Amino acid sequence: MKKTLVRTYAALTALIAMTMAVATPAQAALQVDITDSSQSAIPIAIAPFGNSGAALPVDVAQVASDDLESTGLFDVTERRNMAEKPTNANEVNYQTWRSSSVDNLVVGSAAANGQGGYRITFDLLDVYQGRSIASFQINAGRNELRDAAHTVANLIYEKFVGEKGYFLSRIAYITMAKENGALRYRLIVSDYDGNNPATVYSSRDPIMSPAWSPDGTKLAYVAFDINRGRSSLRVQDLASGNIREISSREGINGAPAWSPDGRRLAMTLSYRGNPDIYSYDLTTNQLTQLTNNGAIDTEASWSPDGSRIAFTSDRGGKPQVYQMRSDGSQVQRLTFEGDSNQRASYSPDGDQITMVQKGGNGFRIAVMDLQNNNIRIVSEGPLDDGPDFAPNGQAIIYARQGRNNELATVSTDGQTRSRLSQSGEVREPAWGPLGY
């Protein structure tokens, strides 16, 4: 029975080794490409922002445009197709924009704020009404212009979508590539769009399962020591780089998941002989066993209110998603469709889970509504893995395996897709908190 669970750590380590045998060196940053957009995308243009002095080191308007375009929810006019490039509302010829079928226009400028940084002001204009519907002002340090651009996009996104934007969030992921004839594994943290990548941890041995702390200051992950035949589950502080070893017991030490309050980690341990889910109190160091079953229980995920834990188990014969109370009681099976379901993760509102479903088209990303148990497939397969919700619940990041292994994002309704590509292997994505 235990051999039926795809995500056993021995099997996955072997898979990593095989796929990396032909990998090429990874590039420094991911590149975002839009593959599918919503048919009801909002037409908008963001004109180049003006400035009162030297050219800005960051093109704020272009970064904000790229942010909105990446969601597939906005149809952003390319700069080369703009008939004019106003920097304030008084310069706008609304008739010109109406004839270009642009419903919404953003105009703005940046000026020194007298504190070594910039003051960015911009207006969101309704082209057909010929008026401003919102005005904003942002102060940013000299080295904070890219964050300021993401803030511009967040404000626009929230105005139209009614949800907070995720453009200040970060992602963690693992790259695997040959360097100097040997494999090198890197745990990388970057902006949500792949910019500003920074290596958090690097090793000749595999790294797996990064998981963000709720406040975004730490990552839990699993590091292997092949020579010793051991794995260790760790928590690393991103600011200081300090690493705290949580478990390096015999057998599996894997699949860490943070409780919403950041006080506990759920994890899979097998030092007692069978892979079960445990809860570890980070303050008291107390370890509590939550499952005790002859099957493999793994891949825990906490609900946003901390009351429930979803997990993968093959206790029914094949990997399926189960749910229990956070104390291990009231276990119930959630999934019945498809050949198998695993790697569940709750949406930020707790109303949905995303998971990997195996069916006729291979392994694809699915979303299940916990109110009515309806399931929809949102990715194309055939080897999709590691889904994780965006911090606002509007999109899902996952890994696409195959000829070109890469990360991808998809809207929860499956209509909008983009990919974050680079040469080499990119796996195990985890989406951090909103960032503001």
Automatic annotation (TrEMBL):
Biological process, per Gene Ontology: cell division; protein import
Keyword tags: Cell cycle, Cell division, Oxidoreductase, Periplasm, Signal
Compartmental location: Periplasm
Ranges of Polar residues composition bias in the record: 408-424
Residues annotated as domain TolB N-terminal: 30-132
Signal peptide: 1-28
GO cellular component: a single term: periplasmic space
Main localization, broad class: periplasm
InterPro entries found in the cross-reference section: 6-blade_b-propeller_TolB-like (IPR011042), Tol-Pal_TolB (IPR014167), TolB_N (IPR007195), WD40 (IPR011659)
GO molecular function, one term: oxidoreductase activity
Ranges for region Disordered: 408-436
Job description of the protein: Part of the Tol-Pal system, which plays a role in outer membrane invagination during cell division and is important for maintaining outer membrane integrity.
Subunit-level organization: The Tol-Pal system is composed of five core proteins: the inner membrane proteins TolA, TolQ and TolR, the periplasmic protein TolB and the outer membrane protein Pal. They form a network linking the inner and outer membranes and the peptidoglycan layer.
Family note: Belongs to the TolB family.
Protein name: Tol-Pal system protein TolB
Source organism of this protein record: Salinisphaera shabanensis E1L3A
